[in-house]
Amino acid sequence: MARAFHLAFPVRDLQQTIDFYHRVLGCPIGRQAALWADFDLFGNQISAHVRPEECYNAKTNPVDGDNVPVRHFGAILEWREWQALASRLKDEGVEFIIQPKIRFKGKAGEQGTFFIRDPSGNALEFKTFRKPERVFDRGK
Q1: Region 30-44 average pLDDT
Q2: Any idea where the domains of the chain sit in the sequence?
């Protein structure tokens, strides 16, 4: 098995969070209790913990012409999987912070990317690379 990451993050409402991550994003639900739930986010374990006072919209930094939320998480998907997710989210009426687009065109880091927010304001980025072996490529 490939190594997966684990991320815990604050949410305002657990039921809204479960609905969003499970129904909208398609994440299987793992263990859960009254104040937290685990999800399988494309092979990675994320844990939503009810802490409304820690939820806020992240500040942004400029990246390739967009204002990218500094605090964000997500997954790198295969190209077709990324396109299918973007299409599904559009069909669900999910608002994009940054619409699906190709970033760094013609450069080593060329990638498809989009950003959304969950119901608690957490920013998520989903990206893809036409050449997955270039995920960590530093070349121009």
Answers
A1: 97
A2: 6-134
